[in-house]
Design brief:
The protein is of the alpha+beta class and 296 residues long. It contains 13 helices and 6 strands. It has a 6-stranded mixed beta sheet with strand order 2-1-6-5-4-3. A hairpin with a 2-residue loop joins strand 5 and strand 6. Helix 1 runs antiparallel to helix 2.
């Protein structure tokens, strides 16, 4: 088989493979590295032995993603402040009607998946999001089918127990409230800002110790509003641009000068903002350069 056929099959499935790896790792940069390494391994495979390209490549990238996740565990333990997944910039028209996919790459879900073990995370992603069979998953994670069924059950219960009891806001409501928030923050309207926040709203900032940001989550409408007012006042003084983009299948706010200075994603329930995820680490903002395509 020619190298062209290897490349053609891999390229066709790349959006799917990237999505699997990103949901396991929560890092755009590491996901690209895993795919590059996986392709080199794939290029040496005799295609005559491959019955199902999709299952074969899904297993391959999952194994590589698990290796990368375990290797990065110590780095995350030593990380300064809160660790958040890298934001994933998407095409504006990529926010499809696939609700399962949209939720699975949301910042809230990725943060939740961080509480799972590496095996639980991989099994949950492959089974609950992408619907792979237990045999394929067992091959990918190197465990028996019976064990994988147990891991899947445990991971599913863990995720369900930590999900919000109320449904997240739909895309239109999220976009509307995000725009209202942008206006209030940009103009310094404290009263309008407070009207958008839930009483127990939480602000989580990820700076990696490389920029000024709260190293612990800030909880409560008044405290979070003060953080936001101070932040946006400083950004106005720095003459930074504020724009709304599609990150992780939800409207997100980007502050940028010559390059991105911060990405802010909000979580909304019952018409109020319940969580802010502020990515300020400049290393993680490198991923917010070119929009991606994802699929399942």
């Amino acid at each position: 088989m020619s190298t062209d056929e290897h490349a053609e099959r891999f390229t066709l499935l790349r959006p799917l493979l990237f999505t699997i790896v990103y949901e396991i790792l929560g890092s755009v940069t590491e996901s690209d590295d895993v795919l590059q390494d996986s392709y080199l391994r794939w290029a040496d495979v005799d295609l005559a032995t491959v019955r199902d390209t999709k299952s074969y490549l899904a297993r391959l990238v999952t194994r590589q993603a698990l290796n990368a996740l375990r290797a990065s565990a110590r780095r995350r333990e030593d990380y300064i402040g809160s660790w958040l997944p890298e934001p994933l910039l998407l095409e504006n028209n990529d926010a499809s009607a696939d609700v399962v996919l949209a939720e699975s790459v949301s910042m809230a879900m990725l943060v939740l998946l961080e509480t799972l073990t590496p095996d639980e995370r991989a099994v949950f992603v492959l089974r609950e999001v992408f619907g792979f069979g237990y045999h394929d998953i067992a091959t990918a994670v190197g465990k028996s089918v019976a064990t994988v069924r147990q891991v899947a059950h445990r991971a599913r219960e863990h995720v369900q127990a930590r999900r919000k009891r109320f449904e997240p806001a739909d895309a239109a409501t999220t976009a509307q409230i995000t725009e209202q928030f942008m206006t209030a923050a940009a103009t310094g309207d404290l009263e309008a800002l407070l009207s958008l926040l839930a009483p127990d709203v939480t602000w989580t900032a990820d700076s990696g110790g490389k920029t000024a940001a709260s190293r612990r989550p800030v909880v409560g409408a008044q405290k979070v509003a003060l953080v936001l007012m101070r932040l946006f006042r400083l950004e106005r003084l720095a003459d930074l641009r504020i724009e709304m983009v599609n990150c992780n299948h939800t409207p997100a706010i980007v502050l940028s000068g010559e390059r991105p200075k911060g990405v802010f994603l909000i979580e909304i329930a019952d018409g109020k903002i319940t969580n802010f995820y502020a990515i300020r680490n400049p290393d993680k903002l490198l991923a917010v350069a070119a929009p991606r395509q994802i699929s399942r």
